Amino acid sequence: MYQVKTYNAIVQAGLDRFTDQYQLNQTDDADGYLIRSVDLHDHVFPQSLKVIARAGAGFNNIPLDQATANGTAVFNTPGSNANAVKELMVAMLIASTRNLFAAADYAAHNSGADISKRTERDKTKFNGEELLGKTLAVIGVGHVGSLVASAANHLGMKVIAYDPYLTSDAAWRISTDIHRAQTLDEAIKQADFVTVHVPKNSETTGMIGAEQLAEMKPGVALFNFARGGIVDNAAVVNALDAGKARTYYTDFGSDEILDRDDVVVTPHIGGSTAEAETNGAIQGAETIMTFLETGNILNSVNLPNLQVPFTTPYRITLIHKNIPNMVGQIATSLANANINIEGMSNAARDDVAYTVIDVKHLQQEVENDLIARLSAIDAVFRVRILKNPALV
């Protein structure tokens, strides 16, 4: 029986995915956490914790180094809120060109007997433009960015996409009508609109700053519905004050961009739809079950992806440092325990590696001794022995 602890309000459809092999919220010493926005940076992880699934794309509320040292795999649910963010982004594109927020605010405060005459007289101040034929630069064409690029293309916009980490899967999602820039400067120089859809990390923090804004066209409209900090807000304010940028739309507020007519801030609602929350909860629950039952990894944010068909009765998994001779030490320990290896796979991600070993025969009385042997290897964070219920 596996124990799962949930934080925040997890949609019931996700909780319903757990089979009768799982108990929810019965103990703090859980095998897995299913979370949304709870901040775990001051949290003490129990030794029992093997997996955390974040029902959403962001994971900056999880201390990855601490999780890795505990031998805990951390996953997000990429793509679960992609359509929600895409729809909001399209709405903001239209709002920015048609001055919708200013027009609605004017209408909300326009009253009196001559309202029709004043409306006809004043409405020209809200004249806008159409998106058709305008150029949009999409920085980052993963789950969200590829959808935004496609939607803009369908609206008749010229789309320039830039992503230095473009995967083959993402490339398939991008229409051949969309120009793929080789550099960030190439993407933003001729754009009327620039939107960022990259994950936040050390390389993307401040990705759009004073230098990049200087390269953009005068009157550019800028959008950040990815993560706060990817766009340098202070640099944007300077660009707005200088007339270089026309407007800034973002889902992430900060003091320097508040109370400005040329900035629209929404309260981090990009992925806040019923559908997105359901998708994230379901994907998170299925991720937890897959990892706990098979050891397979997809969409981890601290471990390498490694998926191996579980076709033997037993599987041994190890999370360890990515240093020389780890695989050799592991294999030697198994040989010394008189265990024959049927299959062995290893993958690395930066300083961390993950090893999966499949075996046909493993006596129950030696399991604890084997875990102790492997755990005693320096730089091993966690050892697990899994059983294939269809074969054991």
Automatic annotation (TrEMBL):
Domain of life the protein comes from: Bacteria
Pathway linked to the protein: Amino-acid biosynthesis; L-serine biosynthesis; L-serine from 3-phospho-D-glycerate: step 1/3
Keywords: NAD, Oxidoreductase
Record's catalysed reaction(s): (R)-2-hydroxyglutarate + NAD(+) = 2-oxoglutarate + NADH + H(+); (2R)-3-phosphoglycerate + NAD(+) = 3-phosphooxypyruvate + NADH + H(+)
GO MF entry, a single one: NAD binding
EC nos: 1.1.1.399, 1.1.1.95
Keyword NAD applies: yes
Protein known as: D-3-phosphoglycerate dehydrogenase
Source organism: Secundilactobacillus paracollinoides
Organism lineage string: Bacteria, Bacillati, Bacillota, Bacilli, Lactobacillales
